[in-house]
Amino acid sequence: MRNTFKITGIAMLLAFGPVAGFQAFAQKGWNNDGRLESTEIVVEKNRVIELPEASRNYEKFRIEPPEKKTNKVTYRFNDYKLADQDVNLSVRVLTIRQEDLPKLYGNYVKAGFGNYSTPYLKGYFHNKRDDKASFGGNISHVSSNGPVKDSDVSNTEIGAHGESYLGNFTIGGRANYERDGYNFYGYNRNLVPEGQTRLDEQSFNRIGAEAYLNNLLEASSKMQYKLGGGVKYFSDDYDASEFDGFANLNLDYYLGKTSRVNLFTDFSYISYNDAGKVSRPFFRIRPSYQMDLDKLDISVGAMLAYADDKVESGDKLNFYPAIRVGFEAIENKLILFGGLGGDLQRVTVNSLTRENPWLSSSFNGLAEIQRPGLDVRNTDKQIEVYGGITGSLASNVQFTARASYQNLKNLYFFNHSVMDSSRFVLQYDDEATSLLNLYGEVIYNRADKTRFGVKMDYNNYGGLNLLEQPFYRPSLMTSVFGSYNLYKKILFNAELYYIGSSFGKIQRGLGSAAILESDNIVDLNLKVDYRISEKFSTFVMLNNVLGKKYERFVYYPTKGFNVIGGITYTF
């Protein structure tokens, strides 16, 4: 048993000895940083491993060493060849997937109804994305009963517009028709016998059409221009009418990267017909040189204006300076600006009746002695000095503050007719009216989700000679407005505005008149839109939430609280 153990031990030594030696070699061949060191390995094929003879006598159990054999190793090389075949390899180029354009809805129709028997309809129609042309149309109708008897009002409009892109040129135009209906309900009802009413209706027809041509798409052109022209026609229920044909040109010629010459000019010919016919030609031209430096922008020019209103108190030919300077005090944050100028501002019956729809073309107070009909004059802004700042407090907050002083010749004021206090006429002072204007606004806008703003406009009129007050021109107007988009599902809009009181002069008998003060106006309007789906939404409009029937003009109360609700369909 002992001999057997010894023989087994010798056999294990022979079997594992080389392995242990190889492990030692392997550990030695690697350096500390894990790399294999350069080592030479010698393989001796003919070496025979022999054990030394033991000192004891084992002859009795002699074991002959195994016979050495030489095994011949043969190598066979096989040639493996694929059969020829045509393989179509499709190469796939990986690109960034472009985002799909959002679906564009170019049309919508809104329909609703409210108290005061108010039907409400609005529609807007437009073509989809097109790089050749853009065109569309609009319709609108709103009518309602007024705050008192016989104070109905209605407004209807239909229009179309379009433009075509011809290379670097754009040709376009628009046309519209409006019909506005009102009643002269602003009289002292205490003076009307009980049971009697008076109904004096008024309606306005407004037609307009114009066309234009420009090359503003050609940004590299040294000369850029915009040329336009058209006609406007106005008429009322008392056989008064006004025709206005106009044309204008705005041209820029770039002398270099920082300087250019600008030429602005416009012309109109107005023919007003009432009890008589009055022609009112009008022309302005303003050349200027403009320089845009790194921090400083300068514009130097002059305006020459001509108008013939056939009034003794107005000059036909007028000259005004046109100087403006802007300085960027803080880059992208604060701009200081100021200037010196003047202007001849065109006034039409069409525009005046938008401000005051109870303006009468058949009565004109004391001016009837001069000529029948409205005494319409252009406003001569003889001189204006202004300055202010504009910029942004943060990326989402913009502000503007401006102060100006003006001398205005033939500034119009609305006042009650001597013959009928429910109708209004135009009055002028014989001297130039001075005007101090202060304007400011701050607007916060964040990612089309939240918008909030405050505006203030203050006017102080001075230098009045014939007029006791600046009739129906309030000194202070402010507004606070905001909107909020909740989860792109509900859109809230709100506006709170204030208009200060003004004055009107009422004739109470022969040689007797009273100056009355109109109301201070505080009005709150709210609107909510709820999006049901991509195509349908509902809306609710709350007007004059405070419910005060204030009088912007004496004896003309406005509607109290009124609400309109409806649905919008987009397609």
UniProtKB/TrEMBL annotation:
<dbReference type="InterPro" id="IPR036942">
    <property type="entry name" value="Beta-barrel_TonB_sf"/>
</dbReference>
<keyword id="KW-0998">Cell outer membrane</keyword>
<protein>
    <recommendedName>
        <fullName>TonB dependent receptor</fullName>
    </recommendedName>
</protein>
<keyword id="KW-0472">Membrane</keyword>
<keyword id="KW-0732">Signal</keyword>
<feature type="signal peptide">
    <location>
        <begin position="1"/>
        <end position="26"/>
    </location>
</feature>
